Amino acid sequence: MASKAIFSTLRRSLTKPLGGAVSRRHHLSTTSAATASEPYPGDEHAIVMKGVRISGRPLYLDMQSTTPLDPRVFDAMNASSIYDYGNPHSRTHLYGWEAENAVEVARIQVAKLIGASPKEIVFLSGATEANNTVVKGVMHFYKDKKRHVITTQTEHKCVLDSCRHLQQEGRPRVRLEPLMNGGGQERGLRSGTLATQQVVGFGVACELAMKEMEYDEKWIKRLQERLLNGVREKLDGVVVNGSLESRYAGNLNLSFAYVEGESLLMGLKEVAVSSGSACTSASLEPSYVLRALGVDEDMAHTSIRFGIGRFTTEEEIDKAVELTVKQVEKLREMSPLYEMVKEGIDIKNIQWSQH
């Protein structure tokens, strides 16, 4: 299909052979979000964006914010854009019927993955709308019977803010009540024309997950251990935030003692990582999730979230370890606190005087 030619071109332009061959995982990883940038004067391989100059495209280890598209999902969406371009809610002609059928196939694929009935699947615009619909919709529907919502401090912002909204309405913190009115699509639960191609892609992604999730989990767990062990072998004062057992292996949140997190992020220009949720990344405050887990504020300020995915390679992990260790060591060399610790001084018992 046309997408094969596209990805072939991307592979040739964005990857270099490792030992004479490019692995499937390696080339899929590096095709993740190509954006055009002007090369830096004097260095044809350099990239300058938003005032930051880097020698090439960084390693992508921010999988909790978004993930690269599987080429097989792209193929399905591309084909749907060409052939299923009718409105799935147009019930009077063939084009609408074909698009509607594509949506219903996807609904079945999603339902199979989570063990639900296709009638229980409602397509929305994304996780924020879905969480708002569930929290607000359920509580509005049962407002005369149930008036309590129990949540946790580590929940996503859209859940916490939905609960606060209900509290402001005078309801302390299943059937849904729709949040929007319109054409009555999705059995009246979510009005608005469905994006057929995105729904089709979601369905294919769920079908692939059913087939490959077990393998992907083992691969990601292996890379997580490689990353953690690699960093710990070369650095002291590295703390894993959260349980190593009860966690998703693709999320490794580390704190580096005596290092300021924002400085570490700025120094890791060749690795795309994050200090927390993309929804709150504009804030310099430490992650509210880490603070809710009991992480001290100074350690929460030093945290970096590494996101590992199915297309991440061992070579990328090893390079990330190398760059992270190098930057942490560089920042610690400039830290008077770390110098005091190396001299055996217990900085927690120091009484600092104010001037």
TrEMBL record:
Transmembrane segments: none annotated. InterPro entries: Aminotrans_V_dom, PyrdxlP-dep_Trfase, PyrdxlP-dep_Trfase_major, PyrdxlP-dep_Trfase_small. It holds the Pfam family Aminotran_5. Residues 60-182, 186-319 form the Aminotransferase class V domain. Residues 18-40 are annotated as: Disordered. Gene3D superfamilies: Aspartate Aminotransferase, domain 1 (3.90.1150.10), Type I PLP-dependent aspartate aminotransferase-like (Major domain) (3.40.640.10). SUPFAM superfamilies: PLP-dependent transferases. Its cofactor is pyridoxal 5'-phosphate. It comes from the Eukaryota. Belongs to the class-V pyridoxal-phosphate-dependent aminotransferase family. NifS/IscS subfamily. This is Aminotransferase class V domain-containing protein. The lineage of its organism: Eukaryota, Viridiplantae, Streptophyta, Embryophyta, Tracheophyta.
